[in-house]
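step 4 of 6: structure.
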Amino acid sequence: MLIGSAIITGLVLLLLTLAWRSGPNRTGNERLWIWGLGVGFTMSVLVVLVAYGVWVGERILARADGALRVAAHAQQWGWEFTQPGPDGTAIVTQGVLYVPAGRPFDIEITSSDVIHSFWVPRLGGKMDAVPGRVNLARLQADVPEVLEGLCAEFCGVGHSAMRFSVVVYPEGDFPDLQADVFGPEDSP
Amino acid sequence: MTTGSQSKTGSDPLLAVAESFTPNPQQRALRLHKELTKVWTDAPGWRGTLTSVNHTTIGLRFMATAFVFFAIGGVLSMLIRAQLATPRGDFLDTALYNQIFTMHGSIMMFLFAIPMLEGLALWLLPKILGARDMAFPRLSALGYWCYLFGGLIIVLSLLGGVAPDGGWFMYTPLSDKTYTPGINADIWLIGVTFVEISAVAAAVEITVTILFCRAANMALTQMPLMGWYMLGTAAMMLVGFPPLILGSILLEVERAFDWPFFDVARGGDPLLWQHLFWLFGHPEVYIIFLPAAGALSTLIPVMCRTTILGYGAIVAAVMGLVFLSFGLWVHHMFAVGIPHMALAFFSAASALVAVPTAVQVFAWIGTIWKGRPQLHLPMLYALGFFLTFVMGGLTGVMLAIVPFNWQAHDTAFVTAHLHYVLIGGFVFPMMAAVTYWMPLISGRRRIKGLGEGAFWLVLIGFHGTFFIMHLTGLLGMPRRIDIYPDNPEWVLPNLISSIFSMVMATGFALFAFDIAMQFLFGRQSRRNPWQADTLDWAMVLPAPAYNFASLPMQGPKGPDLILPLARGEGLLPGAPRGWRELLVVDPGTGKPSHVAVLPGNTVLPLITAGAIGTLVGLLLAGLYWLVPLALGLIVLAVWRWGDIMGTTRDHAAVAVTPDLALPLHWHTRGSLAYRGAVATLVADGTLFASLLFGVAFLSVVAPGWPAPASDLPMLLAPLTASVIVLMLAFAALAARRAEDGRASPHGQLWALLGTAAGCVALLAIAGAALMLDDPRQHARDALRGILLAYAAVHAGIATLLGLRTWTDDRHGRVSLGRRGTAPVWRLWQDFAAVTAAISALVITLQEIA
Ligand code: HEM
Ligand SMILES: [Cu+2]
Ligand SMILES: [Cu+2]
C-alpha cells in the first residue's frame, strides 16, 4: 500500500511538471482531465482498495466457531485479563495476557470508567473499551514470544503508562505465571 | 474614457451590455468617492474600532486575529515538539502536556482555521461578487466580538492552569464531572460554543450574501467559482455546527446538573457524544478545505493567464463533497465496535470523497497545462499545496481502509496525516491567497525575496517534521503521550521531527515579517497587478470602504471596468440619500429585485456580544440564579436590532439606472432579514433534528433501556401538551391575520391575540416542566427536559416577535406597503409550533410504547 501511494504521488507530481512545461494550448481537454483522470482513474484505484479492505476486515471479525475466549478489562490505568490458566480453568491476571500460539482467539474488551483502547501492534486489530459495552475482536498470534500492548485511546494522565504484555506460549505448555494472578472469584 | 480592448461594440465596456441596462451619466470620480466615503467609512479613532460594521474592516480583523491565535497555537506545538524531542522530556509534566496538546488542537481548529476562512469570506465575497457589503453587517461585527471574547476565555484558561485537557474531541466519560472535576472541560464546552456563534452567524450571512447580493444579472451559474465554494462551505456550516453545539449543551448540562445523557448506568451512552462530535468534525475538515480550494481555483487560472478548466465539473465536485462529507462521520469511530456491514459502507463512502477531490486536483493541473504558468509567489504556495496535499489525501485513503485503520488509528501516523491535510490543504492555500490579495489589502507591492524565503523554510520544515511521523506511527508510537522511555527505536525520528519543526516555525515568522514589511515599506502597487478579470480587482487599491462607486453588472470584465464604475456609470451610483445601499438580486438569475438600506456604524453588536459574554461568564462561574438577568440583557439588545425591519414613512422607489427604479427593502416581503431568518431556521432545524437523533439513538442503542416507568400524570400531562401545541398553532394563525390586516385596528388586535397565546403557551410549558420526572433519574427524562427547554426558547422568541409586530403596528411603523416584522414572526411561529408538536408526539410515543 505504501508503494502504491508513492507511485500515485509520483504520477501526480509528474503530471504537474509536464503541465508546467507544456506550452500554452488554449483549449484544454476537459474529457481527459475530469472524466479520465479525475473520475475514471480515481474510481478504479478505490474499488480495488475498498474490496481488499473489506476482505481482510472479514478475517479479523469474531465468529461463533467455538474459538478460545479471553477477556480484557480496562480501568484508569491498567488492564486486567481473564484467560484459561495452566489447568484450563479461568484465571485473572493484571497487566499480562496469556494466549496459546497458532490458535485464533476472541477477546472481549470492556471498561469500567472512561474509554480506553486495546491494541497490540504486532497482532494488528485495535478495539475500543467502552463503558457499558462488550466489544469483540478476533486475533491470532503465530509464534511463542512476548508482545507489547498499549492503550490507544487517550484516557487521562496515566494514558502513556497504560501498557501491558502478551505472553504467547506453545499450545499445551503454559509458562510459569508471573505475579498478580487471582482466581476468578476474587477479581476486584 | 479609456478604450476597452475586450469590448465588442467599441469604447466603453459598460455600453457593451447596453441592451440590459442604460448606463448612468458620468460624474466626477473624486466627488463620488468623497460622498461615499463619508457614508461608508468607519468612525475615526477608537470609536471606529468599537463601532465598525464594514465588511472590509471586520474581515481583515478576523484574519489578523486568527493569525494571532495561529501564533499562539504554534508556540504550543513547539512546546509539544520540545517535550517529545527526547524520550524522557521532563520540562512539562503529564497534566500540563495534556492541556497543551488539547489547546493546540482546539485553538488551531476553532480559533484559527474556521475564523480565518470566515474572515476571508467576509472580506472577499462582496468584492468578488460585485456588492458593497455583506447582507448583515452588524452580524459580521457580532460574530467577531463573540469570536474574540470566546477565544480570550479559552486562551486565558491556559495562563490560569485550568485549560481543557481531554483532547480536542473531548470524549466522555473522560470529560464528565467524575473524571474531569475541574472547570477545564467547562471552559472548552462553553468557550467553544461562544465562538461557534460567530461560525453560525457567518454561515447565515455568507449564504444570504451569495444568493441575493451579487452583481446585477450575474446568474448563479456565472458566478466566480469562489462563490460556489463559499456557498458549499456555508451550507456545511449551517448543518455541521448544530450537532456540535447540541453535544456541547448536553455535556455541559450533564456536568452542571447531572442529567445523564452520556452515563451508561442511567440510559445514556458515551457513543452519543462521539456521533454528535464527528457529525460536526468530519464536515469540519471539508469546511476548512473548500474555501482554500476556492482560493486555488481563483488564483491558478490567473497565474497561468488562462481560464479554469471544467467550471461545471468543479461546481459538481463541490456539491458532491458537501453531500458526501455528511456520510462519513463514522469513519472516526471504526474502533468503537460498529457492525461490520456499517463499517464496509462507511469505508466505501470515505474512499468515495477522494473522487470529487481528485476531480479538482486534475482540473487544476489541466488548467496549468492549457495556460502559461508564471512562478509568482502565490503560485509557489499553490505548488507547495500540490505536493503536500496529494500525499495527505493518499494517507487519508489508506486510513479509510478498515484493517489499516485499526492498525494506524491513534498513532503518530494519524497526526502526520492530519497535518498533511490541514497544513497542505489549508495553510498553504491560505498563504497563497493572502499573498495574492495582499495588494488589494495594503495597496502595496511586496518586498522581493522575503516571501520566497518563508516558502522554502515552511516547506522544508513541514516535510522534515511530518513525513517522518508516518514512520514513527508505523513503528507503533501512539499519539498524545508525553514520554517514551522504553522505546529507543522512536528516539531518532522524534528528534528529527522536533528539529525541523523549528525550521518551519522560523518560516512562519518570516511570512508574518514579510506582510508587516509590505504594509510599512512596500512601494505603491499598480491597479490589478495580476491582470485578473474578476470584479474584486475592478477597484482602486487599496480597496475603498464602499468597494464600488457604482455597481457592476454581469458581462464586461477586466481592468477597463475600473474607470467607468468609479465615474458612476454603473448601477446605483454614489450615496445620494446618505444611506449605505446594497443591490439585492434574484438568487437564480441575478435580476435586480430591490435595494436594501444597511445599518451604519453602531456599538450594538459589541453590546450584544457583551451581554452574551455576561451569560457565558455566569455559566462558567456557576451563578445560575443570575442567568435571567443576562438573558434579559440579551433580549433588550436584540430588540434594538429589529428596528431595521420597520420605518415610519413610505419611501419612493430608488433610481438604479436611468430607466430602472427599485423599491427599498421595507417595501418588499422577501427582505434580506427574512432570508436570514430562513437560513437561521435551517441551522436551528438541524439542531432539533440532532436532538431527535439523540433520542432515537439512545432508545435503540444505549444499554440502559427501556427506562423505568414514568410518573407523568395520566390526564394532566396530555392536556398540557395539547394546550402548548394548540396555543402555538393559534399564534401562527394570528401572525397571518396580523400580517394581512396590517396598519388596521384589526391587524393590531390579531398581533395582540397571537402574543397572548404565546404567553399562555409559555406558562403551559412551565407547568409541564413541573410534571416531568426527575431528569437526573434517566436519560429519557433528561432528554424530555431538553425538548421542553427547546420549545420554551422558541415559543419565547416567537412571542417576542409577536410583541414586536404589535408595537410596530401601534407606532405606525407598518403600512399597506410595509410589512415590518410580521413575515419573520410568522416564520418563527410556524417553526415553534411544528417543533413543539413533534416533541409532544415523541413523548407520547415513548409513553405508549
Ligand atoms: C505550526 C506547525 C505545527 C506543528 C509543529 C504541530 C505539531 C503537532 C503535534 C506534534 C501534535 C501531536 C500532539 C500529540 O499527539 O501529543 C499535534 C496535534 C494536533 N495538531 Fe498540530 N501542529 C502544527 C500546526 C497545526 C495546524 C495548522 C493545525 C490545524 C489547522 C493543527 C491541528 C492539530 C490537531 C487537531 C491536533 C490533535 C490534537 C489532539 O490530539 O487533541 N496543527 N500538532
Ligand atoms: Cu487507557
Ligand atoms: Cu489511554
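step 5 of 6: annotate
 - Residues 2-59 of chain A form one domain.
 - DSSP finds two helices and eleven strands in chain A.
step 6 of 6: archive
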